[in-house]
Amino acid sequence: MSPRRPSLAEALSEGASDLHERGLWRSLREIEGAQGPLVRLGGREILLFCSNNYLGLADHPEVVAAAAEAARRFGASAASSRLISGHMTPHAALEATLAEWKGCEAALAFSTGYQANLGCITALVGRGDVVLSDELNHASLIDAARLSRADVAVFRHNDVGHLDALLAESRGARRALVVTESVFSMDGDTAPLADIAATARRHGAWLMVDEAHGVGVFGKTGAGLVEELGLHDAVDVQIGTLGKALGSFGAYAAGSKTLVDWLVNRARSFVFTTGLPPASAAAARAAIGICRREPERAAGLRRRARELGDRLRRSGWSVPPVESPILPVVVGSSDRAMELTRRLLERDIYVAGIRPPTVPEGTSRLRLSLMATHTDEQLDRVARAFEELAPLHAVPASGAIHDD
Ligand SMILES: *Cc1c(COP(=O)(O)O)cnc(C)c1O
Description:
The protein is built from 15 helices and 14 strands. Helix 6 (about 140-150) links the parallel strand 5 and strand 6. The strands form 3 sheets. The protein has a 7-stranded mixed sheet with strand order 4-10-9-8-7-5-6, sandwiched between helices. A 4-stranded mixed sheet has the order 1-2-3-12. It has a 3-stranded antiparallel sheet with strand order 11-14-13. By secondary structure, the chain is α/β, with parallel strands linked by helices. Pyridoxal-5'-phosphate binds near residues 181 and 185.
């Protein structure tokens, strides 16, 4: 007798009801027009506070012009894997610029940050090896470590002592790879990279740092937290995305020439995928030019994020002090986060609620991210909206965030 299996429709509707009941159902919101401080959403003009367009480069005329010019000269697609015929002049130019900017021998562009992480970790470690991963690492790093078939040891967030202990326990592993973000995507805090690097080195482990939210924002020329801390030589693999502060699309890995040559051969998410569109490569390169030329963009952004964080804390919100443009307003349950997003939308302000599985249970939050192009008046408007809503939603400073 054939087994009684649910139809696809039955299985998915059961799964969907479960997500709905737990307040975890997600759906898309269509933004009309370019990513900037003001966008149209559902026919209304909305103040946007959840884009990763930190430096305001996604809609910068110079970046847009570079993309348009490259599309005209090189077409809309690389139309092939980079190893076949999809390696084009804009890729080579971008990679040379990236390598110089990051203070590395070489850099390799990937089609997304997700793929860069997947490709690097699986190309570097496998069975018999160990990946040491911060507990708050991005999903792409978690998936990559799992896919590599190496053992995975998760260390407590930013806890170098715990990392040290886990490295000591993994002495039997052939190779050890420590993986952390520089600026954590959902918390906006930064990793103690110098200590992590020293610890990794002491144990003969390699170090990979994902600068998805650090690039453009930290460092004298905006190259990231590794630049700010002068750790080029201590980090074996620097990852970053071109789709956040750099206002384009795609990602990179930077390091030694040996590393990049190995990735070209062995990173499956590089080998078996179409090359980055030439327009994206050219746009990213133009954005890097602006970062280097106008460091005041990032400096102003960080200063204003600090000021807004102070103001939100004064009105009773639970916002950890951070140095990045990401301000997590922690409210606890996912229902509360969604309610607060709705209340802000009524005021024409869009701040996305972040729920499990993106963040741990009980730490749902509004993730408020600033752009260098927000005006003072716009920052004041969001601060006032939070002040008005504070009595309804603020979590007492003493925690109570684990209520679901
Ligand atoms: C966004 C993000 C990625 C993925 O980058 P994409 O280019 O958007 O695929 C990887 N790592 C971290 C830490 C991120 O925040």
